[in-house]
Amino acid sequence: MSGNWSVLRLSSLAPPTQSVATPLPNTSQYPPLLDWDAPSFTRAAQFRVGATFVLFLFAACSNLALLVSVWCGRGRRLASHLRPLMLSLAAADLMVTFVAMPLDAVWNVTVQWYGGDALCKLLCFLKLFAMQASAFVLVVISLDRHHAILRPLDALSAHHRNRRMLLTAWSLSLLLASPQLFIFRAVQAEGVDFTQCATHGSFSHRWQETLYNMFHFITLYVVPLLVMSCCYSRILLHIHRQHLSNKAGESCLRRSGTDIIPKARMKTLKMTVVIVLSFVVCWTPYYLLGIWYWFQPDMLRVTPEYVHHALFVFGNLNTCCDPVIYGLYTPSFRADLAACCRRRMDAEASSRFADRLSARQGPNGRNNELNDAGVNQNQDAGPGDTERSGGSGVRLHPSGQIQPVQL
Questions:
Q1: Which end of the chain is more exposed for a tag (fewer CB within 10 A), N or C?
Q2: Residue 200 near residue 187, CB atoms below 8 Å
Q3: Are 75 and 102 contained in the same domain?
Q4: Based on the domain organization, do 324 and 342 belong to the same domain?
């Protein structure tokens, strides 16, 4: 989703489908190459890199913890149709974390591209693939909740249905991101020592590039938002109708005497609604700014640079929100984190105790410790203990050494 649009000193925001650095001008709407002002690592860009680094650390730790918990921790007890959904969501967020965030940070620091043509194509492809997968997995989660609430009797087929939808989501993400391999390339500017990973030369007219960006804006944001809105609107309408039927005294299928929807299912529904809302809240401002840029590129001259950086960082915050929301609604994830923290604290305490014990021991500390252990063992051991130990014991030699003795 991306970063510095411009190789002019204008801004550091890019349309969602482009890379962190800006394409070189390829139409007459851009100023001549000789009029360029070389970009620099500005104070606003430094803030962006620092904030991205903090988000990277938090998103990497939290999403890895979520992945481990669902894969081999207490999260294995999730319903069989929910577990693949959470694994896919964590995997998509980790792709964004380990591809999009480092790429954006490093590219803002270096300003121009030093990775060569092959790496330019590959990273731009992986970046868009990760963003598409993240959005489409949310769509699959919404469709799963829609089926679970409106068609509860289809629960037996939910596992296979979700697997098919996830396979479709990941395959479609791969297909939609593949044009990046052909559109982006490393371009050497004429007359200056400046190389950029850009779409320069891939579009003969400005409107073609705008159309390409708008297509990915629709697949990344508009279509997922419409599908998710439709699913949750129908769910809310269904719950409202069930509530009215219950108040009117009509019979309705319930698992408890007072609940229209089982509590566990309602809790999962609330969690997925909050996850979807975090996606909408985090990315909407950045996409709106991208639309403005695509139709009025001169907007970069009139909007402060820090606004573009701040909105992009705020969009990346969505990657950190998913594991936090999952933890708030899932006690098993919190229990896994608590157990991990306890093990770490116990290990650190044991290490500190061993260090203190070693520091108190002198040159002959080990022999003294063994002597004391031998004396205590002889004093405390009874006949039964001797038999259980195989008939062997120890005695203290006058020289101070421990010698075995057959009993």
A1: C
A2: yes
A3: yes
A4: no
Q: What is the pLDDT of residue 308?
A: 83
Residue 5 lies in a domain: no
Task: Tell me the residue range of the domain where 356 lies.
Answer: 335-360
Question: Do 80 and 180 belong together in one domain?
Answer: yes
Q: Collapsing DSSP states into helix, strand and coil, what is residue 23? A: coil
Residues 385, 374: Cα–Cα separation, whole Å: 14
**Interatomic CA distance for residues 75 and 68, integer angstroms:** 8
Q: How far apart are CA 164 and CA 88, in angstroms?
A: 13
Q: Write the CA distances from 348 to 170, 334, 351, 352, integer angstroms.
A: 41, 21, 5, 6
pLDDT of residue 245: 74
Q: How many residues does the chain have?
A: 407
Whether the Cβ atoms of residue 326 and residue 86 lie closer than 8 Å to each other: yes
In angstroms, the CA 283 to CA 272 distance is 17
10-residue mean pLDDT series, the chain (407 residues): 35 36 38 53 87 93 86 65 85 92 89 88 93 92 86 75 92 94 85 81 83 90 91 85 69 47 71 86 88 78 83 89 79 66 68 69 52 49 44 46 45
Domain count for the chain, please give it: 2
